[in-house]
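Appendix C: a fully annotated inverse folding record. The material below is reproduced so that readers can follow the format used throughout the book. The structure is listed first as tokens, followed by the designed sequence.
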């Protein structure tokens, strides 16, 4: 009955777990929800007031398909400051979240049979969107190199059919940041083989300790005509539900994305765009510093608690807001019935026995991982992490 395309997809596992945890909580179960990929902070007053004013002023019409010019211009200015290159509003396509920016990009860039390299663990949606275009995701397993991207491993996967590389820094789910040397090496590969780079920097506002976020165009401005920058207001401004993100790319690509969007969703929400514009024009540094300081405190508290885990490797996140655990020692492929033989069963075990919702690594192309969001309140974090530690330590 359904299309072949329908068979290529199942629902997002991260969204599925987030919904399940919310449902259990609503039923009164004391579940700690570590599954959501969003901040639990309130939003900045600046953004709130701009949106309220926008409603009162009657901004209830369709906007330009690809976003209001003022927002595209403000994003272009921000990108010019970040990359040191000139950007114009025409090179910015505003979308309903970065998810749509990535989807538009994939649909307008890839042909059936193209290959697209994705480092794993990856954000769950990348390969699904790529498969929907008929292209083939080709994975590079970073678990083999301590969850750090190795350009030689990427080079090995490049073929005649490779069209693009997807980079996500800071990475969801591992929190790894791609450092200048590796970015430079990957940029050189892209240049040498004429590849596109889809550069997802949705978590760039959340980088800790000595790590520094770098946009690939800061390292390799020569790649300008083949880079698509993907970003979002969901994480940086705690506006996940408002659905505003963007793709910044050469004009021919943003124009094609605009055509696609004109036949699918039309413009992103008008009020949300005005809120996003206020977020850029009246940058509320106190708000952002507070959010980052709270996340960093959660990160440090969490790392301290997770030190009590036995036989589980915890990746120290340099960015983003997730802990990523290698739980290979806790699953036994040969396990008898009733025992834990895979990651999904471990996730179920944690939900049933420790009342915590986490996301299993299969969602990220890794059969041995667990993702735990630390963008939650401190008391839930502390309580929930101890439950995870005790539950995992009890599995021998
Ligand atoms: N890219 C990455 C790496 C993400 O983690 C997410 C959301 O979790 C997105 C893109 C999509 O963000 P949104 O569509 O909410 O802007």
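Designed amino acids, in order:
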């Amino acid at each position: 009955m359904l299309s072949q395309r329908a068979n290529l997809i199942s629902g997002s596992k991260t969204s599925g777990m987030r919904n399940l945890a919310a449902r259990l909580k609503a039923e009164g179960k004391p579940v700690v929800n570590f599954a959501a990929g969003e901040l639990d902070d309130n939003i900045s007053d600046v953004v709130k007031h701009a949106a309220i004013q926008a409603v009162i002023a009657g901004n209830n019409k369709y906007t330009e398909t690809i976003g209001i010019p003022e927002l595209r211009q403000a994003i272009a200015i921000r990108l010019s400051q970040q990359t040191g290159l000139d950007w114009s509003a025409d090179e910015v396509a505003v979308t309903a979240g970065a998810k749509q920016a990535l989807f538009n990009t994939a649909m307008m860039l890839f042909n059936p049979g193209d290959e697209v390299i994705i480092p794993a663990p990856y954000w769950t949606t990348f390969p699904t969107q790529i498969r929907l275009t008929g292209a083939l995701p080709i994975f590079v397993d970073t678990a083999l190199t301590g969850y750090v991207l190795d350009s030689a491993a990427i080079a090995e996967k490049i073929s005649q059919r490779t069209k693009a590389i997807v980079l996500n820094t800071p990475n969801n789910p591992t929190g790894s940041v791609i450092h200048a040397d590796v970015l430079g090496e990957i940029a050189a590969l892209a240049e040498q083989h004429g590849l596109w780079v889809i550069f997802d920097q949705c978590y760039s506002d959340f980088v800790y300790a000595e790590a520094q976020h770098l946009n690939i165009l800061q390292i390799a401005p020569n790649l300008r005509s083949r880079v698509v920058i993907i970003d979002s207001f969901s994480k940086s401004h705690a506006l996940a539900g408002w659905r505003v993100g963007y793709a910044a790319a050469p004009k021919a690509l943003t124009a094609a994305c605009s055509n696609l969007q004109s036949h699918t969703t039309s413009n992103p929400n008008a009020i949300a765009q005005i809120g996003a514009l206020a977020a850029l024009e009246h940058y509320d540094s106190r708000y952002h510093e507070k959010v980052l300081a709270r996340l960093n405190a959660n990160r440090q508290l969490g790392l301290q608690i997770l030190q009590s885990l036995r036989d589980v490797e915890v990746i120290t996140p340099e960015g983003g807001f997730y802990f990523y655990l290698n739980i290979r020692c806790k699953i036994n492929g040969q396990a008898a019935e009733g025992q834990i033989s895979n990651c999904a069963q471990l996730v179920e075990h944690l939900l049933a026995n420790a009342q915590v919702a986490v996301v299993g690594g299969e969602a990220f192309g890794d059969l041995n991982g667990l993702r735990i969001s630390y963008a939650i309140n401190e008391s839930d974090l502390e309580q929930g992490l101890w439950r995870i530690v005790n539950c995992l330590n009890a599995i021998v």
